[in-house]
Amino acid sequence: MKLTRILPASCMLLSLMIPQALLAQKPTGSESPSYYNIGGVLSNNESESHFATVIAHLNFDQQYVPRGTTYYDKTIRIDKNPIKTALNVCKHLISRRVYAVVVSHEPTGDLSPAAVSYTSGFYQIPVIGISSREAAFSDKNIHVSFLRTVPPYYHQADVWLEILSHFGYTKVIIIHSSDTDGRAVLGRFQTTSQTNYDDIDVRATVESIVEFEPKLDSFSSYLMDMKTAQSRVYLLYASQEDAYVIFRDAAIHNMTEYGHIWIVTEQALSANNTPTGIIGLKLNNAENETDHIKDAIYILASAIKEMTVNETITEAPKDCDDSGVIWESGKRLFGYLKTRNIRGETGQVAFDDNGDRMYAEYDVINVHENHSFVKVGSFHYDSEKRKMRLKINDSSITWPGNTGKKPEGIMIPTHLKVLTIEEKPFVYARKLLDDEIDCADDEVVCPHFNITNGNEQEYCCKGYCIDLLKALAQRINFTYDLALSPDGQFGHYQLKNHTTGIGTTVKKEWNGLIGELVAERADLIVAPLTINPERAEFIEFSKPFKYQGITILEKKPSRSSTLVSFLQPFSNTLWILVMVSVHVVALVLYLLDRFSPFGRFKLSTTDGTEEDALNLSSAIWFAWGVLLNSGIGEGTPRSFSARVLGMVWAGFAMIIVASYTANLAAFLVLERPKTKLTGINDARLRNTMENLTCATVKGSSVDMYFRRQVELSNMYRTMEANNYDTAEQAIQDVKDGKLMAFIWDSSRLEYEASKDCELVTAGELFGRSGYGVGLQKGSPWTDAVTLAILDFHESGFMESLDKEWIFHGNVQQCEQFEKTPNTLGLKNMAGVFILVGAGIVGGIGLIIIEVVYKKHQIKKQKKMEIARHAADKWRGTIEKRKTLRASLAMQRQYNVGLNSVSKSVQSQNAEKSRYPILPPLPRTPERAWPKDKEYIVNRKNNSSGAGKPPPRYMPTYATDVSHLIV
């Protein structure tokens, strides 16, 4: 005890013995100084005495002071007048070449430490504050060389966040004064919350911010607005005087009773009327100026020691007269000071980039009955993990209302505003007609407020999500008002211009359902809302009530049923070969049967009933009959070689007909049109062609999915220009053939495909996700809604909703229809009927040609008959004339008598030469004549009886003169 009293006196005596010449000596060459003057601007004599004692002890501490180095103290008393303080710094400190200044705090004024900082900082002389905690000292544009061993007031926001995380409070209301420190507390809270708390489930969010002007008279108007908020956790930063007014009015409005939680800073905790249950903070060693002096001096010595090792320290400025002198070594020394991290009297001492104290330790104080302050926890430095830790004894806490039960921290409303959006089959929206008063029993009133024109229209809603909302309301006991999305969108980021004092800035804001929830204009979203990371960052999601993904909807390709569909089983080349084969085989059969010895001639033993040899017409008829399996039994080959070929041809025909029949069934009966696309990895989608258009809905979760996927960027750029405002428009365009592929949620597209069998989904699901109920951040209903949905899954309620709304009762039975074979209709077999009709028409045409040809032949035969009759008559006339002449000649001969034989013979020879004997006519039907037989008999008789006279009349035949008849 005596030693501690003697040391300060001896140190002061030693300082007096140092000659003034030594103080004025300068270091030679490039070496650092051998002595350092440390200035002090302190608040009382005790601090000044302790300052000198610490420096005296420092000179004997070889860990911080190397051999040959000495520290001296130069102190002045701080003045509440900042101008006097600044003048004293120039006159008594800077003139003594101080290398750093340690400044305390005047209890009655806040500006004196700032004056020391301004003056010293102008020459880059480091200043170490040991009691100044205002936020203004963190601004390095003003206090360029200021750092402090005490934390600023706004660092208490870090402890607030740890306390909130410990108790599980995620929604708070911040109340702060509208001064620099109050705004700094708010900024620190929001920044630290987003930076250090990645888990959104435990991150504290600010529901409301109440900013008030200092020197309050009443706080009641602010409290009335706070009552309508959900949060019941209040974080208060206020001075002692303002805190008194706030606590007074809060007690009047019963906002200090059970269910309300107040967490306050040191200044507010010192109010005289702090209610029971308040939790506050108190900085350890906040008023222990002597410990802070020692920590400041040892930190300075540590920095100077390291700096002398690495570089040379130049002399400090000697006066304030030369305004152009900037001490570069002082600037670098300040950098060394900020890197210090030592264990001091006030705990672990370290600094951030602003020169503010880190690792400051606090006590957590709880106000009990009779205004007693009880320490219930601490915020201290963990040397093993090298970070701050919060430790609270929950059992020793007394909460507002003088109870030990921890409040929930929120007021759970029982009447919620619920938003939805029209999206079949989840939500069907029907406009209420003029003559209708109310919706049907299975519908819910869902008005639509148009944000564009401000009109409100009444709608009635039903569907999957409406039934789910009814079940949730009944299960977890809440009432609701349902409304449609104001802008008809689910919600996405959009750029908006915001005018500030600096100028116009562009900010991203949510619109649609998400925007309403983020702006807290709604409590719940019950709609087919896809859960994705972008949305989950701003709102809460329940567990999915339906799992789904993304798929592609397209129209089924139409079957190409033409008039020649029955020819599809064979290619054109095969049909041509079959046609050629028929006629080639017929020709070969004819030739074999013609040149075979058993085909051209009949056997001698035959009875005349054996068939004739095969001619070319019969051979063609036989070949076609075998091919078409007509069962033709006549006109078959006679020769063995031709019959062998006929058997081979029959086998060929059997194979061809069987193959045709099987393929015909495959093409016309079992064939089902396939989808045009194979899925999202289809090359036609990845490299979109002009004739293939695909699209989705603007601002939807599918649109966000494509934005995130780098490998789909080329496809998205093409899609973006085609995107639709609503899914209904896109689906209708797919039905009309205007859109080739619509990419959307699988649940909706499966519903459309089950309702219309002309639509089909292509490929497998991708981008799998789920539909969830959307809630505000920190909503008290999140857990209840999630548990109810999980229970619905287990009980089968969600499955019943799927069957009722999504699959629509399977009215069309598209899946079963796909598995059954097609029924052939006139469209498929029209070509066959047309072929038969063509055969009928061809046969009628041929018979007409035959009839016309036959009539022409008959006319020609009649003309020929007439010509023959005319020729026959002419021949008869000629014969009559010849016969008459012969009769006359014979009569004359008979009358004259037989004068002589010679004359008679000559007469006969002349008669023969004049009337020669005609040869017999052929017996053909064309040459037949009724008197032929009689003429021949007369000729015989004449030849046998030479002495008889010729007949009285003998028909004479003329040569055929039909060719002369025109």
Automatic annotation (TrEMBL):
Residue stretches spanning the membrane: 574-592, 644-670, 829-853
GO molecular function, one term: signaling receptor activity
Location(s), subcellular: Cell membrane; Postsynaptic cell membrane; Postsynaptic density
Domain Ionotropic glutamate receptor L-glutamate and glycine-binding: 448-519
Site (Crucial to convey clamshell closure to channel opening): L677
GO term, biological process aspect, one: ionotropic glutamate receptor signaling pathway
Keywords linked to the UniProt accession: Calcium, Cell membrane, Disulfide bond, Glycoprotein, Ion channel, Ion transport, Ligand-gated ion channel, Magnesium, Membrane, Phosphoprotein, Postsynaptic cell membrane, Receptor, Signal, Synapse, Transmembrane, Transmembrane helix, Transport
Topology in membrane: Multi-pass membrane protein
Disulphide bond pairs: C757-C814
Superkingdom as given in the UniProt entry: Eukaryota
Site residues by UniProt (Interaction with the cone snail toxin Con-ikot-ikot): R707
Residues bound to L-glutamate: P528, T530, R535, S701, D745
Domain named Ionotropic glutamate receptor C-terminal: residues: 441-808
Major subcellular site: membrane
Leader peptide range in chain numbering: 1-24
GO annotations of cellular component type: NMDA selective glutamate receptor complex; postsynaptic density; postsynaptic membrane
The protein's role, per its UniProt record: NMDA receptor subtype of glutamate-gated ion channels with high calcium permeability and voltage-dependent sensitivity to magnesium. Mediated by glycine. This protein plays a key role in synaptic plasticity, synaptogenesis, excitotoxicity, memory acquisition and learning. It mediates neuronal functions in glutamate neurotransmission. Is involved in the cell surface targeting of NMDA receptors. Plays a role in associative learning and in long-term memory consolidation.
Family label: Belongs to the glutamate-gated ion channel (TC 1.A.10.1) family.
Quaternary state and interactors: Forms a heteromeric NMDA channel with Nmdar2.
Protein name (database record): Glutamate [NMDA] receptor subunit 1
